[in-house]
Amino acid sequence: MKQIRPGFRPVPAQSQRSAPPPAPAGSGAPADRTDRGPAAGGATDGPQPLTSPGDLDREVAIAQLFDGHYASMLRLATLLGADDPENIVAEAYYQIYRKWRKIRAAGSAEAYLRSVVCNLTRMRIRHLRAARRHVEAPVDPVASAETSALLHDDQRALVSALQQLPARQREALVLRHWLGLKEGEIAQTMGISCGSVKTHTARGIAALTQALEARR
After folding, report:
1. What is the domain extent for residue 118?
2. Most CB contacts within 10 A, which of 15, 29, 134, 167?
């Protein structure tokens, strides 16, 4: 008589059958999937890509936008009166990078970038004016070598007179006469009507002419 060890529970005969051997390669038999774990639920093996095709497209588009327009955006911020144009332009590119998916057409990216540079410069100038009201002896910011080179390329007297104009007049003149934009493009960049663009441009020209003649 077979001796049964204490605590031993017999297993039904059906459960004692061994698992079927794996099918030979090329036999066409379905492979056993009982021990594949998460893979059986549709998960893919191997490392997953860190970026999607959309992210790669954005990286390429931003790089092209930087290569093609960084210098003109830096010049724009400088002529608008920014004391730190490099930081202004860097922030503008960062904002357009974050909001890239909201830009429906790559062709509108340049216009959006110009608008952001104008807005950031305007806010920066307001902040500096407010801060300088509480400072007895304001210190002139030290311009970078790149900014100094831009200023040397332009007539300092003209730039100085330009920066004395109200923000809207200065923006209209810079966008029209330095970047060569049309009235519709200026209106879109500044967020105003074409009629307002004409008004700001005319007043800016008159004030700039008067300031330059007074220096002679």
Report:
1. 53-141
2. 167
Tell me: do 112 and 164 sit in the same domain: no
**Percent of the chain that is helix, strand, coil (3-state, to 5):** 65, 0, 35
pLDDT digits (tens, 9 = 90+) for 171-213: 999 999 888 899 999 999 999 999 999 999 999 999 988 887 8
Q: Is residue 204 part of a domain?
A: yes
- C-alpha gyration radius of the chain: 34
Given 141, 170, 199, the domain boundary residue is 141
* Residue 136 DSSP class: S
Name residue 127's amino acid.
H
CATH number for 214: 1.10.10.10
pTM over 0.90: no
Question: Is 176:186 a contact under the CB 8 Å cutoff?
Answer: yes
In a domain, 147, yes or no: no
Query: Hey, what are 13's tokens?
Result: 């005969």
What DSSP assignment string belongs to 38-75? Answer: GGGGTPPPSPPPSS-HHHHHHHHHHHHHHHHHHHHHHH
